[in-house]
Amino acid sequence: MTFSPEWLALREKADAEARSTELVDVVRATLVNRNPLTIRDLGCGTGSMGRWLAGRLGGVQHWVLHDRDPRLLALAEAGMSAIENVTAETREGDLTALTATDLAGADLVTCSALLDLLTADEMNALAVACVEAHVPALFTLSVAGRIDFDPAEPLDAAFQDAFNAHQRRGVDGRRLLGPDAPAAAEEAFAALGASVRTAQSPWRLNADALQREWLKGWVGAAVEQEPALAAEAPEYLRRRSEASAVVHHVDLLAIPRAV
């Protein structure tokens, strides 16, 4: 699955406002005596995570940016390299095959809005790679499967359930985690003895451009999953575009025992 630079740019401000700074405080305390820092950003997109996190960590940093889309990698590398005391390099390819050997030498592994696109086996393998490499993992903005509209209406539950089912769909023989990702990640790291902390990281939208664009995809996916909703969709989309919305996400920090 690929995402357009325009969509990633539209959501960057909301992402930045949503991510947990409390978990970053723990990361900074954990890595306090490490300088420079090497950070591997999985599914980096245009580098939004790095732009948000680099200044909060401080010091000299080297970012290794992973993505499948060479267009996004070029944008991410250019943006990250422009930050003072930060260098960057890119890795193009499938990040689901990463092992502890691949992560050797990293001080932190990060990702943003990625885990719902993994399968349970891929999530477990990623946790094993991080723990065996003795590297903390900061995984932000995993979808939680819950939307709160104000005002609420009866159709909200039907569209939410259909969207969540769509997120859990099978793609090319892979069953995606969707909104089960936060719990699956927490369970995978805890089973390996890592210390796990989570924090809520909701988008708070108020009938803005991001909400309108996000809703098109959210309603469209729900209808694709449950075609019976198609008749209600146009008017529902119009009404929900005029409401405020809280889109719930979960951030997770896992620190292996050996760190």
TrEMBL record:
GO terms for molecular function: methyltransferase activity. Residues 41-127 form the Methyltransferase domain. Keywords: Methyltransferase, Transferase. It comes from the Bacteria. One of its GO terms (biological process) is methylation. The keyword Methyltransferase applies. Pfam families: Methyltransf_25. This is Trans-aconitate methyltransferase. It comes from Lentzea roselyniae.
